[in-house]
């Protein structure tokens, strides 16, 4: 029963009156942004522009039916498009060729399978293992690679595809003689206008007496206006004669539903790329969806997101286009434009479908430098210097993980960069937790508080050593802690009882239990008794089943430090103090 | 100055009177054990038996000069010998050939370089990342592989070298027709006598009126006695005619110091094996050294151990033999026999040298099945079912890591097994810490204690949500915690203040700070203020440098939960409660 109800989108019940009107407006604004962006992203991926529109029709409708985000806009996305381009380039498929299209469809189908499988296995939490600095480094690197990929369209200088960035930069410098001013001029103007169409235009419109709301809406229509303006100028003035390439004939019509993706050629070769596309697409989508849901106290279900994105990618494969994801920029536009439910996403999809059916002739003379400008302006904000500065400042390990990921993506290879970042963040975690803080403590006179002897004036007892361990004990730090205990004992030959204070331990693994056991036995041979204090309930339950209790021998596990001291000091009757 | 003093072994100053006499006895006992074991281990490694003696001369002397353990016995070791055999087999070198010897020397030289480099870089703590279950699984698997490697000598059935164990088992079953009863009889008798020479012999001798000490010493000489008895019988009765293979002519003499290892052939191919030999040898040696040092309150310096083991392996390469390590069994014998300082190790080395010089003709008729029996009896205790049971019982993740390592070593390949175990133990750690315990808490009436609302009768306030997080926050659990906070809030629409209680957090990484920051901002948009309480000093220092303080806005960081409640409840003046 629950599964049947889960098939009806939650948001249907919320569609009424104002909400419908808001969604209609927001969906329209988003469509206005999506049409030129979709075509540009398809070109970035090495596909015919119409496939960018196809990626904006069936996939968002499927997401709307299954997703848990009310306002995320699913469709073509920049990092996914770059990953498609890299994967197809790696197989040697020429941009726009039939093999490239077949490869993109295969990638979408594989992504659908991966995402659906992860969803059914409830592996949504796997994406959490990608830390923020690694993701930021990855996206920043990808954005830089995307910008370089647009330079041929903006300069007329041919750059080697699939080469590392330094090599591309050298080719650009060597090829500066072949610079084509018309391209540079059109692309440059496009970029400047697109930048101005953001905050400056909003401020200008507000100065002219417009409310903030309508000013923002107008600013969001600006990219389409700029595209139409450039297209009109190119057609009217015949700029094609100056060597400015245009989109050309776009076949009108809707995607032809196809099951082509069932003959998966190349699927083995494309599997690693599909895995990266799925994971990155999912992680980015979920973080967008979460950020938006928080603002309205809505919930995102990570496993439902996997299923919904899987369905959206199946829709992409079915429509014969490239993989899709939830895009950050378009989703924020949709949200800010007032979207309440996924009805907005369906409005966008229908408008894009109408464009694909009837309006493609409008874009025939659209100059490619303008589409390149659109992409560059869209991805520049993805280069996240802010996070890098914050990471470096907060913790060198986080900063290093981001830097290595970024450099790996830019200098070596997209997948290698991601892998390097993942490994480094795990190594940093191991390193950090393997050097826990361990303090020798004593009692603050007249209280039952125990504090670090090197920072406070506290009571101590010559044959009693109190050690507080500020970390969970596990294989990577157990030897370190053992070493610290050994050192502390070597300096205090008169000690007869050691109490480990475990209040900050959230877990104790088998390696740690065995170390404690060995420590207890070895200490007994040396005439010292090991005790524990302040052990949390769940840890205590496990310790009871282990051999530690026998190894402790005369040693006790005390409820807290005070109890340990009261018991051990009285039974020792150390004459120097009592 | 410090470095010059570090060159003089610490134990020199402790050598006097009784200590010298104890060391003399212990060193002799250890030598009596080492002579037959060394020859057996050399054969296991695929080398001439005399190289096993060579591995017991210069390497322990060098370890004695540089090592920090007083009582560890360094020399040929079973797992290292197996790893040498596997590596040489992988290169296709026939056992006993000149290429095999050159390969073993190369491995010793590479291990020396690796260990010395790790020592100079102070990377001793790296070995801590090998968890007890993974090490136990690895050693257990290696022991089973060693036992299978001895089956041809014990049965006369030829088994395929370098094949996985199931294949070897099939070959053994298929070859049962070729079973040679004389080998089986001699090997079987050898094993039974070697087992009886342990505890049963000690008990028998004690029953016969001997003290425990002398009884143990006699039992330790038994292996040599059994070897000499078998050799004598073989020579006297001419058992070679029955098809029992013997060690044969052993060239008498000391190792010829050689710098052959400077022409490192095959070194690229042998590097991975050398890495595993170094790391495993180091980890095993240090755990032995630590266990012994604890009993006398002595200290082990992991980085000095790396240097000393590196020197010992350089000595092995210089003597033209295989890599060495600190062996568990021989070290315990040395310790129990009363060794006080490394003078015992030097005594052992000198006695082994005398054996190599003058006594090799004694071992000419030593039957190989007896040496195989010696190895099998020595490695059976390494199959650690106890740890497996304990691990499985204590924590399925620990048990699984041990099982996968064991199966990887036995069924696939020694290095792959180790790698799989390492990966699995890191994955288990990530998994564990990524699902922290988070409790909604309330105040125990009349106190300032805060406890889980679902377990205790506590006061709560409708617009105040108190959440205690029992784990350090980092990238792998930050989304999970965010999700829990979101769920808790979705169930309580009237909440206006959320307080995260951070007393159990030992670290907060950048991903977590960013999540907290996003959470604070998103909550503000929803009209809820985020606060923290009980943040530890070092974490507080870092948070201050991050953007979290601005993101909190009206939110505070309270010293403890009580302070937060006093402040927030009074300013809210929620009429329902106050």
Automatic annotation (TrEMBL), chains A, B:
The chain crosses the membrane at residues 24-44, 50-66, 73-94, 100-121, 133-151, 183-205, 217-239, 269-294, 306-329, 341-359, 366-383, 403-431. The keyword Lipid metabolism does not apply. One of its GO terms (cellular component) is membrane. InterPro entries: S04_transporter_CS, SLC26A/SulP_dom, SLC26A/SulP_fam, STAS_dom, STAS_dom_sf. This is SulP family sulfate permease. It comes from the Bacteria. Keywords: Membrane, Transmembrane, Transmembrane helix. It is a multi-pass membrane protein. GO terms for molecular function: secondary active sulfate transmembrane transporter activity. CDD domains: STAS_SulP_like_sulfate_transporter (cd07042).
């Amino acid at each position: 029963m629950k599964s049947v109800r889960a098939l009806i989108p939650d948001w249907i019940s919320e569609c009424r009156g104002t909400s419908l009107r808001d969604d209609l407006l927001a969906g329209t604004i988003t469509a206005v942004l999506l049409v030129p962006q979709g075509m540009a992203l398809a070109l970035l991926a090495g596909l015919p522009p119409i496939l960018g529109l196809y990626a904006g029709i069936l996939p968002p409708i499927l997401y709307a039916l299954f997703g848990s985000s009310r306002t995320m806009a699913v469709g073509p996305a920049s990092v996914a498009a770059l990953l498609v381009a890299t994967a197809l380039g790696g197989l040697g498929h020429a941009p726009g060729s039939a093999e490239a299209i077949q490869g993109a469809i295969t990638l979408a189908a594989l992504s659908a399978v991966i995402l659906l499988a992860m969803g059914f296995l409830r592996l949504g939490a796997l994406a959490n293992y990608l830390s923020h600095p690694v993701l930021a480094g990855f996206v920043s690197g990808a954005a830089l690679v995307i910008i370089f990929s647009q330079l041929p369209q903006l300069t007329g200088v041919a750059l080697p595809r699939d080469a590392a960035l330094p090599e591309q930069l050298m080719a650009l410098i060597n090829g500066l003689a072949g610079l084509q001013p018309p391209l540079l001029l059109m692309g440059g103007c496009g970029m400047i206008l697109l930048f101005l169409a953001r905050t400056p235009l909003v401020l200008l419109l507000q100065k002219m007496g417009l409310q903030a709301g309508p000013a923002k809406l107008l600013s969001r229509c600006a990219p389409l206006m700029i595209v139409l303006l450039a297209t009109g100028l190119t057609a009217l003035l015949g700029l094609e004669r100056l060597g400015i390439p245009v989109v050309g004939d776009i076949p009108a019509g809707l995607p032809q539903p196809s099951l082509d993706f069932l003959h998966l050629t190349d699927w083995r070769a494309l599997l690693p790329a599909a895995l990266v596309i799925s994971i990155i697409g999912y992680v980015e989508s979920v973080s967008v969806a979460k950020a938006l849901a928080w603002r309205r106290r809505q919930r995102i279900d990570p496993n439902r997101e996997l299923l919904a994105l899987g369905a959206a990618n199946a829709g992409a494969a079915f429509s014969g286009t490239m993989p899709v994801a939830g895009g950050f920029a378009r989703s924020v536009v949709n949200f800010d434009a007032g979207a309440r439910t996924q009805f907005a996403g369906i409005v966008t999809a229908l408008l894009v479908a109408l464009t694909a059916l009837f309006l493609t002739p409008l874009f025939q003379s659209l100059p490619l430098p303008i589409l390149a400008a659109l992409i560059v302006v869209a991805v520049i904000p993805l280069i996240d210097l802010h996070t890098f500065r914050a990471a470096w400042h907060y913790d060198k390990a986080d900063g290093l993980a981001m830097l290595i990921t970024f450099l790996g993506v830019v200098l070596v290879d997209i997948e290698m960069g991601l892998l390097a970042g993942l490994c480094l963040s795990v190594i940093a975690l191991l390193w950090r937790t393997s050097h826990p803080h361990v303090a020798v403590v004593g009692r603050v006179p007249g209280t039952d508080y125990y504090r670090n002897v090197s920072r406070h004036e506290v009571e101590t007892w010559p044959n009693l050593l109190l050690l507080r361990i500020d970390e969970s004990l596990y294989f990577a730090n157990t030897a370190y802690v053992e070493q610290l205990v050994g050192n502390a004992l070597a300096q205090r030959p008169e000690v007869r009882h050691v109490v480990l204070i475990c209040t900050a331990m959230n877990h104790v693994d088998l390696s740690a239990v065995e170390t404690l056991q060995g420590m207890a036995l070895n200490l007994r041979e040396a005439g010292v008794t090991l005790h524990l204090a302040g052990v949390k309930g769940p840890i205590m339950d496990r310790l009871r089943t282990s051999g530690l209790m026998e190894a402790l021998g005369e040693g006790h596990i005390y409820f807290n430090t005070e109890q340990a001291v009261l018991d051990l000091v009285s039974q020792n009757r150390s004459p120097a103090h009592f």
